[in-house]
Design goal:
The chain is α+β, with helices and mostly antiparallel strands. It contains three helices and four strands. Strands 2-3-1-4 form a four-stranded antiparallel β-sheet. Helix 1 runs antiparallel to helix 3.
Protein backbone atom coordinates (compact mmCIF):
# COMPACT_ATOMS: atom_id res chain seq x y z
CA UNK A 1 0.00 0.00 0.00
CA UNK A 2 1.45 3.39 -0.96
CA UNK A 3 0.83 6.53 1.02
CA UNK A 4 -1.20 9.37 -0.42
CA UNK A 5 0.86 12.46 -1.22
CA UNK A 6 0.64 15.11 1.48
CA UNK A 7 -1.63 18.01 0.58
CA UNK A 8 0.00 21.20 -0.63
CA UNK A 9 -1.20 24.27 1.28
CA UNK A 10 -1.18 27.87 0.07
CA UNK A 11 -1.70 30.28 2.98
CA UNK A 12 -2.38 33.94 2.26
CA UNK A 13 -2.67 36.61 4.94
CA UNK A 14 -3.90 40.10 4.09
CA UNK A 15 -3.76 43.49 5.73
CA UNK A 16 -5.92 46.14 4.11
CA UNK A 17 -5.13 49.80 3.58
CA UNK A 18 -6.50 52.14 6.19
CA UNK A 19 -9.87 53.44 5.08
CA UNK A 20 -10.83 50.39 3.02
CA UNK A 21 -14.57 50.07 3.45
CA UNK A 22 -15.90 47.03 5.29
CA UNK A 23 -18.16 46.33 2.30
CA UNK A 24 -15.11 46.19 -0.01
CA UNK A 25 -13.31 43.80 2.36
CA UNK A 26 -16.41 41.59 2.44
CA UNK A 27 -16.58 41.67 -1.38
CA UNK A 28 -12.93 40.56 -1.51
CA UNK A 29 -13.51 37.71 0.98
CA UNK A 30 -16.53 36.50 -1.01
CA UNK A 31 -14.53 36.70 -4.26
CA UNK A 32 -11.66 34.69 -2.74
CA UNK A 33 -14.08 32.02 -1.54
CA UNK A 34 -15.62 31.87 -5.03
CA UNK A 35 -12.23 30.82 -6.43
CA UNK A 36 -12.57 27.52 -4.61
CA UNK A 37 -15.67 26.77 -6.66
CA UNK A 38 -14.49 28.10 -10.03
CA UNK A 39 -10.93 26.70 -10.14
CA UNK A 40 -10.88 22.90 -10.36
CA UNK A 41 -7.36 22.48 -8.92
CA UNK A 42 -8.54 23.83 -5.53
CA UNK A 43 -9.19 20.85 -3.26
CA UNK A 44 -9.95 22.69 -0.01
CA UNK A 45 -10.55 26.21 1.21
CA UNK A 46 -11.02 27.90 4.54
CA UNK A 47 -10.60 31.36 5.90
CA UNK A 48 -10.98 33.40 9.04
CA UNK A 49 -9.99 36.55 10.84
CA UNK A 50 -6.72 36.92 12.72
CA UNK A 51 -7.78 36.52 16.35
CA UNK A 52 -4.36 35.73 17.80
CA UNK A 53 -4.11 36.79 21.46
CA UNK A 54 -0.37 37.33 20.93
CA UNK A 55 -1.10 40.36 18.73
CA UNK A 56 2.23 40.00 16.90
CA UNK A 57 0.78 41.07 13.54
CA UNK A 58 -2.48 42.90 14.23
CA UNK A 59 -2.33 44.68 10.85
CA UNK A 60 -2.74 41.29 9.14
CA UNK A 61 -6.44 40.69 9.50
CA UNK A 62 -7.66 38.05 7.02
CA UNK A 63 -6.21 34.53 6.68
CA UNK A 64 -7.00 32.20 3.78
CA UNK A 65 -5.81 28.60 3.36
CA UNK A 66 -6.19 26.92 -0.01
CA UNK A 67 -5.37 23.24 -0.47
CA UNK A 68 -4.04 21.59 -3.61
CA UNK A 69 -3.04 18.06 -4.51
CA UNK A 70 0.54 19.20 -5.13
CA UNK A 71 2.72 22.17 -6.08
CA UNK A 72 2.13 21.64 -9.78
CA UNK A 73 -1.63 22.04 -9.25
CA UNK A 74 -1.01 25.43 -7.65
CA UNK A 75 1.43 26.55 -10.31
CA UNK A 76 -0.32 25.30 -13.42
CA UNK A 77 -3.97 25.33 -12.40
CA UNK A 78 -4.34 28.27 -10.04
CA UNK A 79 -1.79 31.10 -10.13
CA UNK A 80 -2.38 31.95 -13.79
CA UNK A 81 -6.02 30.91 -13.93
CA UNK A 82 -8.12 33.82 -15.30
CA UNK A 83 -10.37 33.84 -12.22
CA UNK A 84 -7.34 34.12 -9.88
CA UNK A 85 -5.86 36.91 -12.01
CA UNK A 86 -9.22 38.71 -11.87
CA UNK A 87 -9.17 38.35 -8.07
CA UNK A 88 -5.65 39.80 -7.85
CA UNK A 89 -6.83 42.82 -9.86
CA UNK A 90 -9.74 43.27 -7.42
CA UNK A 91 -7.68 43.11 -4.23
CA UNK A 92 -4.38 44.75 -5.19
CA UNK A 93 -5.49 48.40 -4.83
CA UNK A 94 -6.71 47.70 -1.29
CA UNK A 95 -3.75 45.79 0.13
CA UNK A 96 -1.40 47.34 2.65
CA UNK A 97 0.43 44.05 3.16
CA UNK A 98 0.22 40.44 2.07
CA UNK A 99 2.07 37.36 3.30
CA UNK A 100 2.06 34.15 1.29
CA UNK A 101 3.40 30.85 2.62
CA UNK A 102 3.19 27.46 0.91
CA UNK A 103 3.95 24.16 2.61
CA UNK A 104 3.40 20.43 2.29
CA UNK A 105 1.30 19.19 5.19
CA UNK A 106 3.06 16.56 7.29
Amino acid sequence: MSAEPAPYRHVVIFGFKEGTAAAKIEEIAVAFKALSKSIPSVKSFEWGLNVSPEKMNPELTHVFSVGFENKAALESGYIHHPEHEKFVTLIKPHLAKAVVVDYVAQ
